[in-house]
Amino acid sequence: MTTRVGPSHSQDGSGAREASPIAVQVRGLVKSFGSGDTTVTVLKGIDLDVYFGELLLLVGESGGGKTTLLSAIAGILDIDAGDLDVLGASLTKMSPGTRTRFRGQTMGFIYQQFNLLPALTAAENVAIPLLIQGTGKKEAISRGRLMLERVGLGDRTEFLPRNLSGGQQQRVAIARALVNEPQLLVCDEPTAALDGPNGQKIMELIRDVGRAPDRCVIVVTHDSRVFQFGDRMAELTDGRIVGIHPIQREATA
C-alpha cells in the first residue's frame, strides 16, 4: 500500500480523504486510437487521485473518455503517455503478463456488456475469478452461490445466461466482480439494466466494498440514482477532467 496522502480539500475536492492513502494515482495520462490522419485522442493528460476507502464516480457526456479511463486504470488498455500507479504498483512498468496476473489478483470488473460465458451456469460464471486464483472448484462454486444470494439471485444459481433477463445477467456479472473481494472494483454503468429496488441493493453492496480501508471503487455512471452512494464525483469532458467535487449527503439517524 502506498504511503502517499492526498492533497487538501481546497485543491481537489477530497475533503475527509486528505488523510487517506492513495489507491490509484494517474498523472498525464494520454490515450489515442487510430493512426495518422485518423488518430483520435480520447484522453488528453488526465491527472487523478483515488483514495482507499472511497467510492469515486466518473461522470460526464457520452464520448468524453470515461470508459477509456476506467479501462486504462484496470490495465485493460495500454496508454500512450503518462504514469499510472494502482495499489502501490506501476502499471506502466509492468509486462503484459505481469499486468494480467496483477489484475486477476487485485481487481474486480463490472462490465456494461456483462461478458458472461453462455455455457456456464450463473454460479459457475461467478466462480471464475476464484478458479483463476486456484480455489478448488467445489468451494469456488459454493462461494459463487452465496454471492448470488447476496444480489437476490439465490433461486437462479443453476440457470444459464440465456435463461436470465438482462437485469439478472447484470447481477450475475456484479456477483462475479465481488466474489473475490477485490481491492479495486471498477464498474461501467452497474445499474443500467436494473430497476430501482435492485439498483439500490446493488449499489449498497458496491458501496460496502468501497468503505473498507484497504479497498476502493470507481464507478462510471449516467444514473443520477447512483450519486447518493459516492464520496466524490469527477467530471470528464472531451478527454479532460474539468472538476472533482465532494458529494454531500444528508446525515442518517
How would you portray this structure in words?
The protein is α/β, with parallel strands linked by helices and 253 residues long. The protein has one domain: Rossmann fold. It is built from 7 helices and 10 strands. The chain has helices spanning 9-12, 66-73, 96-106, 122-132, 137-150, 166-178, 196-211, and strands spanning 22-33, 40-51, 55-60, 81-86, 89-90, 107-110, 184-188, 216-220, 232-237, 240-246. A 6-stranded mixed beta sheet has the order 6-7-8-3-9-10, sandwiched between helices. Strands 2-1-4-5 form a 4-stranded antiparallel beta sheet, with helices on one face. Strand 9 (232-237) and strand 10 (240-246) form a beta hairpin. Helix 4 packs parallel to helix 6 and helix 5 crosses helix 6 (166-178). The radius of gyration is 18 Å and the shape is globular. Residues 1-16 have low confidence and may be disordered.
